[in-house]
Amino acid sequence: MLIEVFGPGCAKCQTLEKHAKEAVEKSGGNHQVVKVSDYAAMAARGILSTPALAVDGHLKSQGKVISSDEILSLLKA
Amino acid sequence: MSEIPCPTCASPTQPETGPSPGFWRKGGWLLLALPLWFLVYHFLEPFAEWITASIFKLGLKSHLGSSVTFFFYDTPKVLMLLTLVVLVVTFLQTFVSPERTRAILAKRAGAWGNFLASLLGIITPFCSCSAVPLFIGFVKMGVPLGVTFSYLVSAPTVNEVALLMLFGMFGWKIALLYAATGVAISFFAGLVIGKLGMESSLEPWVLEVTFNPQTIEEAKQSFSGRLDVAVQGVRDIVGKVWPYMLAGIAAGAVIHGYIPESLLVKVMGKGVWWNVPLAVLIGLPLYSNAAGMLPIVQALIGKGAALGTVLAFMMAVISLSPPETIILRKVLKPRLIAVFVGVVTIGILVVGFLFNAIL
Predict the structure, then answer these.
(1) Whole-angstrom Cα distance, residue B357 to residue A45?
(2) Does residue B184 lie in a domain region?
(3) How far is B125 from chain A (nearest CA, A)?
(4) In chain B, whose CA is at the least distance from the CA of A42?
(5) Which residue of A49, A53, B195, B278 shows the fewest CB atoms closer than 10 Å?
């Protein structure tokens, strides 16, 4: 699956990216984590507050840092 | 990519451990901790005096003694207040989100929209890192430019944590004064920017970009789940702001113990007209968060500084921050940045003068 982490590069966005990578490791599956920091791209995806996270193109969370366990459950869903 | 400094904002990090069972373990225990909090808070002042007199062997009236008492009284006091306030605020914020705010404000033109945006800015969580996506999302979904600015000014200016801490430290009158003036500044700043019709001063890419709104189906949160988020918020925010807070308390302690009242009244007193613009001039480039500012505010007011001057200083420090202004430059042309900074500065000046004149 494709995990996208959206954020301009603040501390919280980096934490979320870290959690996403941890989740991929825990799952053991073949998932890819991509960081998106372009504002126009964020607008196109309808993101209002950062950090945000999307799985396979579907926005799953925004405005907060979710844990690696939560990201893991998103990957399984 | 370089990290964007963002000390004023912190969204609660969700707990790393999986969902733990039971109401009491998931934050319900806080309901029991609350009476204990009030009991300890009540005994802080005698405790600080005891430390100064018995452990440091200092006279309570001496310069050093009163500085030391201030420090040992204010450190646990501000820390305890901050913890309680952040807990309450993050708990309440689990009920609001920028998406909801935007839905309320969309298509709401006119002064009523500005007023509503200024009020919503008080409670909505806001982080300067999110300023650009939020700005685009608001404008693109039909929130008028002036209304968006009312929100953008109000969100950092009327800080929900500062508001509740002012209430805890100075009582409801000063807290209300702070909220009312902050809302008034945001209202007029947005109204002026709206009236000037500055849509042409947005960066062209903002007008061209498409915004496709998405909704996230979020699971309904339980009461204890919300409390859990609040506890995480406390850990996150208090863990981040305590250095600012300690620095503020140290500065406050020096003011409290060493700066003579007569000098402070001469410089920051009511009768001196130029201290308001000076306070704003010094405060604008400074950047701290509310928890760091309040001990300084407390020490200054205790020494006879004029309320308007101190309020203007505090607002100048916490409202317009250089990092946020730099980030907004990505969407606003310099002309609109200048109007934004100018209008807010004038608003803060007016508030300072007004309070010094009428109180």
Answers:
(1) 50
(2) no
(3) 9
(4) B133
(5) B195
